[in-house]
Design brief:
The complex is a heterodimer of chains A (334) and B (567).
Chain A lengths: L1 H9 L1 H18 L4 H5 L8 H10 L6 H13 L13 H36 L4 H15 L2 H18 L18 E2 L3 E2 L3 H32 L2 H8 L4 H31 L1 H7 L4 H10 L3 H29 L12
Antiparallel strand pairs in A: 1-2
Helix pairs in contact in A: 2-14, 6-7, 6-9, 6-11, 6-14, 7-9, 8-9, 8-12, 9-11, 9-12, 10-11, 11-14, 12-13, 13-14
Chain B lengths: L4 H17 L4 H4 L20 E5 L19 H10 L4 E3 L6 E3 L2 E6 L5 E6 L13 H12 L9 H6 L5 H6 L8 E4 L4 E5 L7 H4 L10 H4 L19 E3 L8 E6 L16 E5 L4 H9 L5 E3 L5 H8 L3 E2 L2 E10 L12 H10 L2 H9 L4 E2 L23 H15 L9 E6 L5 H13 L4 E6 L4 H6 L5 E7 L6 H8 L15 H11 L4 H18 L3 E8 L2 E3 L3 E2 L15 E2 L2
Parallel strand pairs in B: 1-10, 1-11, 15-16, 15-17
Antiparallel strand pairs in B: 2-3, 4-5, 5-7, 6-7, 8-9, 9-10, 11-19, 12-19, 13-17, 13-18, 14-18, 20-21
Helix pairs in contact in B: 11-13, 16-17, 17-18
The chains are: A mainly alpha (334), B alpha+beta (567).
């Protein structure tokens, strides 16, 4: 087990190196001139200014020198300096990563709570009204683009409730992270939850539907299994049969999905972040790509890739907890 | 200065989606609208309150910098305009140049040496006096090589202060053209060439004074705006910039009063930062802010709902298409009548209506209203006249022995993603009416300027935002031959024009320079026929009715220090 974990952890290194190197190459191949963009993209830059900017950020060095410098800085824990903002990428990471992690965490919580419940219910009551309702609502949730749902929620719970003098609890702020006040890193404090609800629901919507559908499908498979009939024949209560014997076995693919999703939501919640003005990593990377700010893109992507690999490792390890037949690190144990 | 093009694009896409998602919100919601009460600017000012601003950073996201030495966009310079006072300023309403920290100024005979006498008793918000050496220190900071400021051109190219270029090259460590006499409160500035508008040039934010005592403590000067910057304006920072969240200012209670003789009225201004113009507008509609930018496609709706509470005055920017004057097909003296015909065929009103929902003003010349000396309908080629266009085109065909319909299609160049394609398509249709074929030639936006500088354009889209409220600031950069390789993307070269600019610059009084500038503008528009100005940009900001005395300056900045919140 320990060996397996170690091997998987070390795998982070080549994965991160590969991903960042590809990005680095892409940045050098892309047409475009960050210096021209810095002065607005509509204006000329004089030669002296260009020279000053290029020498300050090392843009006048050949690509292999810039590449080497990136890794040697990284070895000292330094992600570099943003060309457009002239400040450390570590600081930018420190501002955006917590916001991203919090939003993704709550989206995944919603996704699991609602998705798994809906999936189980519709599998157990197959072809009932509940099943139909779950199928229809999840299809709609998948079909509606994130920004449309975001605007709808903003309009209904922000504008409409304001114009019609709804009580305060029914009025939601539609922009920004608010007071940015959290307990134990993840739990909103005071009025913070009001700022969190709409973006979290929006971000969760698509994946919730996928989780529900996958839970339903695997549950249906499991419900037909021999051990389910055995458990029921032993006279166990239906609830125990379904939750302990059924759901636990059905969860392995769902956990995979949710795990991958957590990794993905941290870095790619760009649309939700944009619609709700949530200052996360997705928005920061998106902005940096449009302004050709390579240090931000490389630095933040590096962290995201690493986080993704680690999350995946935990997902793999959790299989063993869910399904005792799965063992790691011992050849031939199965 | 720019409005972010990607924000505009996002706005267009989002507006389309939104229009289908919750289109007619007008009817059922009419009764409860609170913000549609017409504003009365009268009444006595009231002190107090918090203003939440969404028109500035809630469309373009986190700015790169808000340090006066590094803030390149209108949005990023907006907080600075409240945090700092310069030597001079342009009156927000009239555009007239007024003394600020400088009490008075004068120049030598040919406008190359300028002396500013500073007002005594003006202080920074930390209590330190504002001295001539604070200006010198600030200006040197802008052209310091390690600062790598994209705004250094104000000193090196626009004002041409002696020694500025040497500092930027790294060959000097002092701005030799500036002498600061703190004891007598005088600042003397020597320029490399005459510049009658220099007192206007120094009204730009980049020339703001810097408190040496606090600024010099910062090791990395480009990171000064990460902390508590110290200014001398009507507001001061309430807290350091919260990235991606907000920039908050509070009233500077030790402010000397400025040229209007009063401290600011509103206690606290929160510039919220986000990136989605539609969401910001929604937030305004839910009563959570006092200002917002009107998203593309919602202008008519906003007009209907908020009536007069819209600030849509021209903001000193022109959207134009220009001819590459070195191009064998459209450029040069021989093809002047071809350019004339094209100019007369383009339907500016139709473009403003179709592409900008009527929100921008149709341009009747290059220099927009708001610039002292602007003359309505300066150009005789303004206005669509298809018959005359056909007539001059026939003359051109006879004179050059060419056939307009057999020309290679004329390339319409624009940068991708800036929302210019619909305009290009309409122009294409207008040229088609003359029998002139054309083709769209979109280019990479990140290198568009340098492509055009190299002469790769033919009939090319560009825009210009004035940095100063001065006639010169549009004509010199866009049309003077010395700005080729700079912002003269049409590669226009006419010694008579250059001489007129020089003549105007030697005038010490603004009034005597204006007729010369007007003549120069007529030269490029009517004689050389270099550009077709299509429209003048407008502000397009909606505000809550409790916000009073709303003033948006000609350059697009909001004078929040002049406004108050009604109870």
């Amino acid at each position: 087990m320990a060996g397996y974990v170690l091997r998987r952890t070390l795998l982070v290194v080549p994965v991160v190196w590969g991903a960042v190197s590809v990005l680095f190459v892409v940045f050098f191949l892309l047409p475009g001139d960050p210096v021209e963009l810095m002065s607005g993209g509509e204006r000329a830059v004089n030669a002296e200014t260009r020279a000053a900017i290029e020498s300050k950020y090392g843009l006048d060095r050949p690509w292999y020198e810039q590449y080497g410098r990136f890794w040697s800085q990284l070895a000292q824990g330094d992600l570099g300096v943003s060309i457009t903002q002239g400040r450390s990428v570590n600081a930018i990471l420190g501002e955006t990563a917590p916001a991203s992690v919090r939003l993704a965490f709550w989206a995944v919580v919603l996704e699991v709570l609602i998705g798994v419940t809906a999936g189980v219910l519709s599998a157990v009551r197959r072809r009932s009204f509940v099943d139909a309702l779950a199928t229809v609502s999840t299809t709609v949730a998948v079909a509606v683009p994130v920004f449309v749902l975001g605007y709808l929620l903003q309009y209904m719970l922000g504008v409409y409730t304001f114009r019609h003098d709804f009580p305060d609890w029914a009025r939601f702020p539609v922009q920004g992270i608010g007071p940015d006040s959290w307990a134990l890193f993840l739990f909103p404090r005071g009025s913070q939850w009001k700022y969190l609800v709409l973006p979290a629901v929006t971000l969760a919507s698509v994946s919730t539907a996928v989780v529900a559908r996958m839970t339903r499908a695997t549950m249906l498979e499991v419900l037909d299994a021999d051990y389910m009939r055995t458990a029921a024949a032993k006279g166990l209560p239906r609830r125990t049969v379904i939750l302990k014997h059924g759901l636990r076995n059905a969860l392995v693919p769902v956990v995979t999905l949710v795990g991958l999703d957590l990794g993905a939501l941290i870095g790619s919640a760009v649309l939700t972040e944009a619609v709700f003005g949530w200052p996360g990593m997705g928005l920061a990377i998106h902005g940096a790509i449009t302004s050709l700010d390579a240090p931000i893109v490389l630095g933040l992507s590096l962290v995201l890739v690493a986080a993704y690999v680690v999350v995946n490792l935990f997902v793999d390890l959790s299989y063993a907890l869910l399904d005792p037949r799965i063992r790691y690190g011992k050849a031939g144990a199965r | 200065m720019r409005r972010s093009p990607s924000a505009t694009l996002v706005a267009v896409v989002a507006a389309l989606v939104l229009a289908s998602a919750c289109g007619n919100d007008g009817e059922d919601d009419q009764p409860a609208v609170r913000q549609e009460v017409p504003t009365t600017d009268g009444g006595a000012p009231i002190s107090g309150g918090t203003l939440v601003d969404l028109q500035n950073f809630a469309t373009s996201g986190d700015p790169d910098h808000i340090d006066p030495a590094l803030a390149t966009t209108v949005q990023s310079a907006q907080p600075g305009h409240l945090l700092w006072d310069g030597l001079t300023e342009n009156d927000y309403r009239t555009g007239e140049l007024r003394p600020m920290v400088a009490e008075r100024w004068d120049s030598n005979g040919d406008a190359t040496v300028w002396t500013f006498k500073l007002r005594p008793g003006v202080t920074f918000s930390n209590g330190d006096p504002v001295l001539p050496s604070d200006f010198k220190y600030a200006w040197e900071r802008v052209v310091t090589r390690s600062m790598a400021s994209s705004l250094s051109y104000h000193l090196t190219d626009n004002a041409r202060i002696k020694g500025a270029r040497a500092m930027l090259d790294g060959t000097a460590t002092e701005l030799t053209g500036v002498r600061a006499d703190d004891a007598n409160l005088t600042l003397t500035v020597e320029l490399e060439a005459p510049l009658g508008i220099f007192p206007t040039v120094v009204s730009h934010l980049v020339f703001s004074p810097m408190n040496r005592r606090t600024v010099s403590q910062v090791t990395d000067q480009t990171a000064y705006d990460q902390g508590m910057m110290i200014g001398n304006g009507p507001y001061r920072l309430a807290e350091p910039w919260r990235h991606g969240r907000s920039i908050t200012l509070v009233r500077n209670d030790s402010y000397w009063g400025g040229s209007n003789g009063h401290k600011a009225y509103i206690d606290r201004i929160e510039f919220r930062i986000s990136k989605d113009v539609n969401a910001a507008y929604t937030q305004f509609e839910s009563g959570q802010a006092q200002t917002a930018y009107i998203p593309a496609g919602r202008y008519a709706d906003a007009r209907a709902r908020y009536g007069r509470n819209i600030s849509d005055r021209p903001v000193l920017g022109v959207y134009y298409w220009g001819f590459n004057m070195r191009d064998p097909v459209v450029g040069g003296g021989d093809n002047m009548k071809l350019r004339q015909a094209i100019t007369l065929a383009i339907d500016r009103q139709a473009i403003v209506d179709a592409v900008y929902s009527g929100s921008r003003k149709v341009a009747t010349g290059f220099t927009p209203p708001g610039i002292p000396g602007h003359r309505e309908a300066l150009s005789e080629l303004f206005g669509r006249d298809l018959e005359r266009a056909r007539r001059v085109l026939r003359e051109w065909e006879q004179e050059t022995d060419k056939d307009a319909s057999s020309l290679e299609p004329i390339r319409l160049n624009f940068s991708v993603g800036g929302g210019h394609e619909p305009v290009a398509t309409l122009i294409q249709a207008n040229l088609g009416e003359l029998g002139i074929r054309s083709t769209l030639d979109p280019r990479d936006p990140t290198t568009y300027v340098s492509q055009m500088q190299r002469g790769e354009g033919q009939f090319l889209r560009s825009g210009w935002f004035w940095d100063y409220v001065a006639y010169d600031n549009g004509l010199f950069p866009v049309f003077d031959s010395r700005a080729i390789g700079g912002d003269n993307l049409v590669l226009h070269q006419n010694p008579k024009f250059d001489a007129a600019i020089d003549e105007a610059r030697r005038q010490r009084e603004a009034a005597s320079a204006i007729p010369i500038y007007q003549g120069a503008e007529k030269m490029v528009l009517d004689q050389d026929v270099v550009v077709v100005p299509l429209n003048w940009y407008t502000g397009q900001v909606v505000y809550a009715s409790e916000l009073r005395n709303v003033v948006q300056g000609a350059l697009g900045f909001f004078a929040y220090d002049e406004m108050w919140l009604a109870k």
